[in-house]
Amino acid sequence: MRYIPIILLSTLLIGCGSGSSSTSNSEPNSETDPTNDPIATVPDSDGSTPGNEDGSEPESTPPDEQTPEQDDFASLMLTAVNHARSIEQNCGGTIMPAVPALKWNYDLEAAAFRHSSDMANGDFMDHTGSDGSTPAERVADTGYSANAWAENVAAGQNSVDDVMASWMSSAGHCQNIMSSNVTEMGASAVENADTQYGIYWTQVFANAW
Question: Signal sequence: where (predicted)?
Answer without folding.
Answer: 1-26
